[in-house]
Design brief:
Blueprint lengths: L10 H8 L12 H5 L1 H21 L2 H11 L4 H4 L2 H10 L2 H8 L6 H24 L2 H33 L5 H25 L4 H24 L14 H14 L1 H12 L2 H14 L7 H50 L8 H27 L5 H18 L2 H9 L1 H19 L8
Helix pairs in contact: 1-3, 3-10, 3-11, 6-9, 6-17, 7-9, 7-12, 7-17, 8-9, 8-11, 9-16, 9-17, 10-15, 10-16, 12-17, 13-17, 13-19, 14-15, 14-16, 14-19, 15-16, 15-19, 18-19
């Protein structure tokens, strides 16, 4: 199918976007893959942009939470959205990596996962249009669970496919550019939400339908990647693969440190609801559009920069992202304790900073893991890291207990400490972009 899309005309654009002064030579992919890199680079950017746009349109922390509450779903069900979405996308990976290793071309698995995510999003939209109350909440959670499981397949496969088709000096650029494009699209959505020009419920349901279409389109585009057949050894039963992957925690000290750093940096993902709770209290509700707009702007302005920086030093990206996250969380906690974290002014600014940090964490850890691993260990490292972090995200529910006992500002202070400690530990990571 890839032969239907000649890509030599893309080479000048590829050189302008992704090639720096050090030249074009590929350092860790074969010559045959290097010849196809320009086309594959933009296929990655296009597919990942569509997938990230869909992520932004269906954000469980904001969009789905608002939708379920509007449908009259119980608050207890709404509280399950983020754990299901985050942990459901990560925890299964330790057990699926071995099976996925049987595929010589893993682009097919990624495309299938993206298509299932698209169908799951459409199922959420259908539930929103036809159901109410607890039935709507349960249907949306079921569809989100399916979406998260499909996403786990994509997550296992993506870094492996990226590592085979794009040189290590340009991987962060590809993912960062996709993040910036997606953020621009989500900004349009946020602007419509904030403007009030379109009825909010209809706009949210339409955005979820669009997210489903975007995932299906990304699946079709990803199939056109020119991916060489790769090694297939290591495809065992789920338990055998899991036990084999766990061995790497003992063997590789750098992997252990990376997983600890990444686990601590989950604070940047868990923090926004607690920041909102600190600012809003019991009487004020932050407008949905304001938060989505702050998040999207942060991604637009920082994703490409973080991506380029990651191609030079993903270790430093993790250090600086941790510092930025610790700063935003500390200031948010202090402002919250003093009553100065206004939901319409100070809070959007802090959300903007924490989402810049979050973008750095996502791009830094993705590029670092891809470049620190070899072709033989990349899938196992990815699955193991994601599974451990999935467990950490599940344990993040304890922050709700802390917030209930001591207030959300206390939870933010603990998260600030986590981000700061992550920065210190990240200093001990190897420079892998050499």
């Amino acid at each position: 199918m890839a032969d239907l899309f000649p890509t030599q005309w893309l080479r000048p654009a590829f050189q302008a976007v992704a090639i720096d002064d050090e030249g074009q030579a590929c350092r860790d992919i074969p010559e045959s893959a290097c010849q196809e890199e320009a086309g594959n680079f933009f296929r990655h950017v296009g597919s990942l942009s569509l997938s990230k746009i869909a992520d932004g349109l269906i954000d469980p922390k904001l969009v789905l939470s608002w939708l379920m509450l509007s449908l009259g779903a119980p608050a207890a069900l709404v509280g399950l959205l983020v754990p299901i979405r985050e942990a459901g996308a990560l925890l299964p990976q330790l057990f699926t990596a071995g099976a996925l290793r049987r595929l010589p071309q893993r682009k097919w698995a990624w495309s299938a996962g993206a298509a299932v995510q698209g169908l799951s999003a459409l199922a959420i939209a259908i539930a929103a249009l036809t159901l109410r109350g607890q039935a709507a909440g349960l249907a949306i959670l079921f569809a989100l669970t399916t979406l998260a499981l499909a996403r786990s397949v994509c997550s296992v496969c993506y870094k492996d496919v990226l590592g085979k088709t794009v040189d290590k000096s340009r991987r962060g650029t590809a993912t960062g550019l996709a993040g910036s494009i997606a953020s621009g699209a989500v900004i349009v959505f946020a602007g419509l939400l904030a403007s009030g020009l379109v009825q909010r419920y209809e706009l949210v349901v339409s955005a979820i339908v669009l997210a489903g279409a975007a995932w299906i389109a990304s699946a079709l585009l990803f199939i056109t990647l020119r991916e060489a057949r790769g090694a297939t050894e290591g495809g065992r039963s789920a338990i055998a693969a899991a036990m084999e992957n766990l061995v790497w925690l003992r063997k590789d000290a750098q992997l252990r440190r990376f997983i600890i750093v990444r686990s601590l940096l989950t604070a940047t993902a868990l923090a926004p609801p607690f920041m909102i709770a600190t600012a809003a209290g019991a009487e004020t509700v932050l407008p949905l559009g304001s938060l989505v707009l702050a998040s999207a702007l942060a991604g637009l302005l920082s994703a490409y920069v973080w991506g380029r920086f990651s191609d030079r030093s993903s270790r430093k990206v993790l250090v600086y992202a941790g510092l930025a996250g610790g700063f935003a969380l500390s200031i948010s906690a202090v402002l919250g304790l003093t009553g100065l974290l206004h939901p319409l002014y100070a809070l959007p600014a802090m959300i903007f900073v924490i989402m810049i940090a979050y973008q750095g964490v996502r791009l830094g850890r993705s590029t670092h893991l891809t470049d620190m691993a070899t072709a033989e260990t990349r899938a196992a490292y990815t699955a193991l890291s994601n599974t451990v972090v999935g467990m950490v995200l599940l344990a993040g529910g304890l922050f709700s207990v802390l917030a209930a006992v001591s207030g959300p500002a206390a939870a933010l202070l603990v998260m600030a400490g986590m981000a700061g400690l992550a920065s210190v530990l990240a200093l001990g990571l190897d420079e892998v972009q050499v």
